Amino acid sequence: EDQVTQSPEALRLQEGESSSLNCSYTVSGLRGLFWYRQDPGKGPEFLFTLYSAGEEKEKERLKATLTKKESFLHITAPKPEDSATYLCAVPGKKGAQKLVFGQGTRLTINP
Amino acid sequence: GAGVSQSPSNKVTEKGKDVELRCDPISGHTALYWYRQSLGQGLEFLIYFQGNSAPDKSGLPSDRFSAERTGGSVSTLTIQRTQQEDSAVYLCASSHGTSGYVYEQYFGPGTRLTVT
Predict the structure, then answer these.
(1) pLDDT tens digits for A63-97?
(2) Quick check: B42 and A103 CB within 8 A?
(3) Which of A21, A52, A96, B13 sits 20 to 30 Å CA-CA off B103?
(4) Are B114 and B12 in contact, with CB atoms under 8 Å apart?
(5) Which residue in chain A is spatially nearest to B88 when comparing CA positions?
(6) Those residues with Cβ within 8 angstroms of residue A111's Cβ, 6 or more apart along the chain or in another chain
């Protein structure tokens, strides 16, 4: 069964303190890995798609990387407004279009 | 442009009543998805529509749940004889069409359903 595991479940950082969130997956024939941000009471907001090992994408203070078994979301010099739950997801079994989501990492940036 | 919209934003219903939740996808997106997010749970896939193809209903938890998509655009998720365990946030997403390629999905704000 396809699985996505995110760690840590929760992370508290001081403003400016860089760190990384982890997303490990078990799926045969990866057809993309997706990162989303979700604020309380809102739907997930698309951040990045990664398709192949070694690929990297950046947006402001966020950088996503992908290996054959896991993805990292690096947060550099975060600000309080980066506080949110970060979700990663992969497509399900071959041919399926549904996304299988991890449980998310709840990130809090203290000023 | 306009994103995915959902209505109502909140719905409180009594156990045993039927509810309808609506989703308007992004214009031009041919694929539409429904997910459910329960407290403490991750996002759970419910159903997927793509063009005129038969929908993928593999995630519907019981036959009390059904969905339709009219004219390839607006979708309605119907829950019959609601139960307390149906309480959750129901999220709709849309994406460009697929032919083996998986596009990013854009989510609406969700409908928070509370069954009392």
Answers:
(1) 999 998 999 999 999 999 999 999 999 998 766 78
(2) yes
(3) A21
(4) yes
(5) A41
(6) A15, A80
Quote the pLDDT of residue B98: 64
- Cα separations (Å) of B29 from A15, B3, B72, B96? 38, 11, 9, 5
Euclidean distance between CA atoms A99 and B27, whole angstroms? 21
Q: Is B56 on the interface with A (CB under 8 A)?
A: yes
B 77-106 near A (Cβ less than 8 A) = 91, 93, 98, 100-102, 104-106
Q: Are A103 and A73 in contact (CB under 8 A)?
A: no
How far lies B108's CA from each of A38, A57, B26, B39, B104, in Å? 11, 24, 9, 18, 13
